[in-house]
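Record passed on underneath.
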Amino acid sequence: FIPSMVFVWFLLLSIPAAVWMNRLGRKRMVQISNVVTLVGMLIPFIDYSFATCMAGFVLLGVGNTILQVSLNPLLTNVVSGERLTSMLTAGQVIKAVSSFFGPFIAAFALGVLGEWRYLFPIFAAITLVSTLWLMFTDIPRETGVSGTSSLGATFSILKDSRILLLFLGIFFVVGVDVGTNTVAPKLLIEREGMSVDQAGFGSSLYFVCRTVGAFIGSFLLAKMSDVTYFRVNILVALAAVCVLFFAESTAFIMVLVGCIGFFCSSIFSVIYSQAMKSRPDKANEISGLMIMGVFGGAVIPPVMGALTDAIGNQTGSIAVIAACMVYLTFCAFRLRKAC
């Protein structure tokens, strides 16, 4: 239930955040997200209870949604279109490294400060530094973006077949990400008889390979076509998923899971940047639509669970991930024709 308090806001707030961004500006919206996150971090530390934890996580979800919608468009104010995908992918690397250090900060708070809840003010302090840094950073005001918009006008952009194609691409690539991270340990438990603790290494390996893939992708995308990179990577990832249906040994499963993480790591950035570059005059609204697609991470895993229950093993989960990959492959080659 707690993760849902964070995730659901991608569905509910992405489009309203894009509408507000047109009126308030991108930099101001990023600062608003930082303030909301700061408050969300402090509430559970000041008064720790179930109710305050729920309130804190709601604010974290709201702040994260606003940040995701506004920060990437803000990047376009200082980065040229040719480098946008590379810089977005580099941002994914920073995000992954930050997530990696989260448990270590919690361990530091418990072991050194004597209470794990001290991670809340630590994260709040980091957010405050980010807020002050951005406040004193001179960023040109966006140009060529309409000052007003509405929910209806934003949703109407989905009538553009290219934008709809990319929106569904975001939906399914996030579903693949969350789904693979979920199924990796379950496969090791089901096929190799591992304990829950041992099988958790499957998720860790996926996470590491995804981070490495994004790091390498940030350099490669600065030198080659976004769509070509998308096409090559999704074909390899699809092949890995297909082989995963038959993989039995621990090493083989781990290699395939690592391949999926590595080759899918930059696809989100490619799809997002393609959407932003296709209609720069509607960049804010498109950002809202694309981030709303992140809700696919909350939809795909339950579908995986339902099909797994129907079949009786994790083949059902792999089939759902494969179906998502097939759409992404279609998206990659459709984009090639459009470019």
User: Anything to note?
Assistant: DSSP finds 14 helices and no strands in the chain.
